[in-house]
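Regression report. Comparing outputs from two consecutive submissions.

Submission 1:
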Amino acid sequence: MRRIAVLAEGYFNWQDAKTAVGILRYRSDTVVAVIDSTNVGRDAAQVLGDPDGPGKGVPVVANVSAALAYAPDTLVIGIAPIGGQLPAVWKAEILQAIAAGLDIVSGLHHFLSDDTELAAAAKRHRVTIWDVRRPPDELAMRIGEGRAHRPGSHVAYFCGTDCNVGKMTVALECAREAKQRGLSAAFAATGQTGIMIEGSGIPADRFISDFLAGGVEGMVLDLAERFDWVFVEGQGSLLHPAYSAVTLGLLHGAAPDLLVLCHEAGRSHIRRYQVPIPPIPRVRAIYEEAAGWLKPASTVALALNTFGMSDAAAREAIAQAQRETQLPTTDPVRFGAGPILDALLAAV
């Protein structure tokens, strides 16, 4: 069990600091402080706009020096910016954390352990730097083989209309619901935040493209041997102008039996791009067609992210989406993942 300080300087909000939010919501370790000088003195949950949600009781402090008062043993980089680079002004904070004896966990594309100054400091102070996005050696250059999963196992892939619509969250909520019902289930992490939460997985967006499907296949085959249900975290979107290649590699490598489609209520365009999101039934057909090039997979449920809406507005949005798609629909964070898991079980 770690005592974690999360570094999210200037970015601590539910979109830009999704790593921090994921750690607060799902990691079993104790988060003792969040570092963001723009929100000093506030409760982390209040900053995120959900006073009773993740981060309740976790103080927001100005810097690493202030965080040390809460006795952390680990500093987690709490953001995943476009391009995955370390903000230059953060290096001094990381060096201070290392000097104080804190291990460092980073999900950036910029590998901190490759930085000679940081690596030397870590060696000197006998702390570890875990670059979560470094692919595991045994899967980093694995070619896809198209191997079938263990009979009796079921693989569900959580696809999305865009980035940041809740694919990881929905997969985690479904895995939690399945385990609570006594089912044999595993969450297959494919992104830096999911890996930090689960403690294992593959960083899909860091794989050489030739080996992504093979790496995902290797991970899923292993989990399917040990668990009856494998919930594979999706990344990006087949519609995304920058990240669609990652999504397709994941989809084909996972070779899912079933799909769960994730969408944010009211989002009409790919975030930061002027690319319209088609109607949900069309997005469903796109995913099913792409999966079907190798193995048929049907969409059995829709997860609708209703963050920021009132309960009444959320229920109406869910009802409207269900009418439009004829799929069981819910917001699993607000109303529970039961309907989605019921749909998955009914499908098999």
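Submission 2:
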Amino acid sequence: MAYDIETKCLHLEQQGETCDKSGAISFPIYQTATFAHLGVGKSTGYDYSRLQNPTREQVEKVVAGLEGGVDAVAFSSGMAAVSAVMELFRPGDQVIVDEDLYGGSVRLFLNISQKNGIEITRVNLCTEPVENYITERTKAVFLETPTNPMMNVIDIRKISESTKKHGILLIVDNTFLSPYFQNPLKLGADIVVHSGTKYLGGHNDTLAGFVVSGTKELAEQMRFTIKTTGAGLAPFDSWLILRGIKTLALRMEKAQANAIRLAHWLQEQPEVVRVIYPGLNEHPGHIIMKQQAGGFGAMLTFEVTSKELVAQILERVKLIQFAESLGGVETLITYPITQTHADVPPEILERNGITDRVLRLSVGIENVDDLICDLEQAFFD
């Protein structure tokens, strides 16, 4: 029976074969490093938790099911997941990446991937045709949509037409929208990456990352990488993500409703220069977002009139917490230029419009009127 995604978040883990036969409603935590065998050539299907663990296997099945993938591999963090994807490439290969990305991904590409001989070509995939940059050495296109932190919306289907034409991979970081609002594989992507720390976990209490593969071949390559590099998600953290996913639908809907209210409130403030949220009709990616996603998410970015006002807001917020990360039940405010994007070269920051007056909000599930009151007292003396 085909369930709606709201039901899948709760019951997908109960469908099909499972290693646990106890009938436990909450999937057990298999807190073990190794597994005993019944004899030579007689295996339970599990050997060593670096290779696979029942709890990790379960969360991988759930995430793969939500994204519509052939397989998902759970890593110890989102950056571990992105790093594993980059192991698909060899020295001399070219990877085209969008200009506006999470600062950790930029740091990886510029300092690790390029050191390993992979050519990284940065392109504004919202405005420039990717076709102009594809060469015989191009192996993949990597993007986020919406982007972090400037909330640009990239047409996944359009990019997919080019990548399929040239036989290269399309890799989409789907962290901001989660599989509840967007499924890039269904739009033509080959690989989907998640920082499971964010919306999938949803409670700011664990780190996790996922790589969801659209083909058996890619799935086998990612399995080999995680087995070899050893960055698999631990059993207890796997269970925390399983627990978080159960409320994914509720959290995403509530946080989005709050984000829409906050975006409109911010637009009315004279000290706010601009509000960047795809749910606003005037956002340049609004129509594309409606075509390829089931919602607009709960991330928004805004720019104020001065650096001094930024400092005032960050010092005076009380309910909203000044912290890195996103996607949890609590509303967080982040200063990209000193936090998430501190290692991004200045020329890239300038080109993307990430100034010392830009703030990013990860909107949580609190009462929205309380959030507005908190911002109001932070803005005004």
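Expected: both submissions complete independently.
Actual: both completed, but the second showed a warning that disappeared on reload.
Relevant detail on submission 2: The chain has a mean pLDDT of 94.
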